[in-house]
Amino acid sequence: MRYLLTLCFLLFFTFSHSQEYTKSFSVELDSIDNILASLPPCKDATIIESAIHRCDELDSLNLSPDDEYTVLQKKSQLLAMLGKYVEGFLTQEKGILRLDTTDIRYLEYFAVKNKYLGNKKLSDSYYDKAIDMCGKMTGKKYKLKKVECLVGKRDLTEAKNTLRRLIKIYNDSDYKMLLKEFDSILEQAIPIDSFMENEFKKYFHMKLGE
């Protein structure tokens, strides 16, 4: 389960816009990416904590909204590698709030957060906006993100139908693979969602009780 949760974080939070970085900033990000690439998760907590410290140092700089989002996204993934899934998820919020409220990353984050908090109505509202934005964008990653959001919302029939339409138009092997493995992927996603919902309940109960 821990491996699947960490993998989920690494996959879920890799949807970002390409950026131009200064050389030193890029080198720092590359060094952090090397640790994130070590799946199964790196066993050495000291290395991961050192990378988290690097993220904090970068975050203290005067970064653009997209750069800060990228840094906090990586910190989130690193915390997940330590098993700190809720803390990792919430770590992104500072960067998320600097993005435009119509940004798909912003919309999906709050869709997932509200799902984990048990607010399905608000979660679905954010998912619907994210799905609508994906439909307005061009490029394969937005088509895949639309399917991901439909699955997140549990609109499974439309998710499958969307994949079938994409296959009919593009005859793409990635779309075919996703449709073929759809039920298997869903079997893994459901327990992860349940785990995170329980972790959120425990986390916020502890916070309220302090």
Textual characterization of the structure:
The protein is mainly α. About 75% of the residues lie in helices and about 0% in strands. It has twelve helices and no strands. α1 (about 1-10) packs antiparallel against α4 (about 65-80) and α10 runs antiparallel to α11 (about 175-180). The chain is globular.
SSE topology sketch:
Blueprint: H1 2-12, H2 23-36, H3 45-59, H4 65-81, H5 85-91, H6 93-96, H7 104-116, H8 120-136, H9 140-152, H10 156-170, H11 173-180, H12 182-209
Helix pairs in contact: 1-4, 2-3, 2-4, 3-4, 4-5, 7-8, 8-9, 9-10, 10-11
Number of E-state strands:
0
Percent of residues in helices:
over 70%
Tell me the β content: under 5%
- Biggest pleated-sheet summary: none
* Content-based structural category: mainly alpha
Number of helices: 12
Shape: globular
The H/E string reads HHHHHHHHHHHH
In round numbers, the mean pLDDT is 86
Radius of gyration: 17 Å
Spatial separation of the terminal alpha carbons: 29 Å
Given as residue ranges, the uncertain stretches (5+ residues, pLDDT < 50) are: 14-20
